[in-house]
Specification:
The protein is α/β, with parallel strands linked by helices. It has eleven helices and ten strands. α1 packs across α2.
């Protein structure tokens, strides 16, 4: 298997603890929840950071996990994490174009139990490629080979790509930037996920000012959060209820 060396910076302790609670809660989503979409309403809410950190924690906890970068228009993973390979990267865009096969685009990383399907080249209009049956086939095959498939997706509000990818996943985690993303946008995102029948697993409230609980008043009923230094996590509608539902 081909390899990619990548640099994933360590998190401050409090942020790491908040992310670790997210990882633990993922385990309550059931054994059939494997393809997990990390998505946001608009750009710059932190979904790519959450995707990588969640993937890394799941892998290091002993769960073989693969990170799939599907943000073909504006991927940041390659540059942000300083990918290093012995040869040119053959990524998702090659696979969807029919220029590469499954075994060509899945890379082993320096993260133990961590694998990645990267993006090679940014595309101006990848919607046609994402609509190809090969996209769904790839995710299904990855779900057979790995315990978790973490999908870093384009935002929901920008283009139709995010909703299309959501329809192929078992559930979604919506990343919301504190005090920036409006309740209207959150509501629209939830409606889009519902329309494509993608189950909401939870919400991450990002860049929280921990000295104040004003964000709870700002977002109201949209979730109950475990908040840390810059991150919060909670199930939509209350964590206890969702856990009980999952056990039924």
């Amino acid at each position: 298997m081909k390899q990619i060396e990548m640099n994933v910076p360590a998190l401050p302790y409090a942020v790491e603890e908040a992310m670790n609670r997210l990882r633990i809660n993922i385990k309550f989503c059931g054994k059939n929840t494997k393809k997990i979409l990390i998505i946001s309403s608009v750009p710059n809410e932190g979904k790519s950071t959450v995707s990588v950190q969640l993937w890394k924690m799941l892998a290091e906890a002993g769960f073989p996990s693969v990170l799939v970068d599907v943000d073909l228009r504006n991927s940041v993973q390659k540059d942000r994490h300083e990918f290093q390979t012995k040869e040119e990267i053959t990524g998702l865009d090659y696979y969807l174009s029919g220029l590469a096969e499954y075994q060509d685009v899945v890379y082993e990383t320096n993260i133990n139990n961590g694998y990645i399907v990267p993006v090679s080249n940014l595309l101006e209009n990848p919607s046609t490629l994402l609509e190809d049956p090969r996209m769904g086939e790839l995710l299904d095959q990855l779900a057979e080979d790995y315990r978790y498939v973490i999908v870093d997706s384009p935002p929901l509000d920008s283009v139709s790509d995010g909703a299309l990818i959501a329809s192929l996943c078992d559930g979604a985690i919506l990343v919301v930037r504190s005090r920036m993303t409006s309740k209207r946008l959150v509501r629209q995102s939830l409606q889009q996920l519902e329309r494509v029948r993608c189950r909401l697993l939870g919400m991450v409230l990002n860049r929280v000012e921990t000295k104040s609980h004003a964000y709870m008043k700002y977002y109201g009923r949209y979730g109950s959060y475990y908040h840390g230094y810059g991150y919060g996590y909670g199930y939509y509608g209350g964590g206890d209820k969702t856990k009980k539902d999952e056990k039924k």
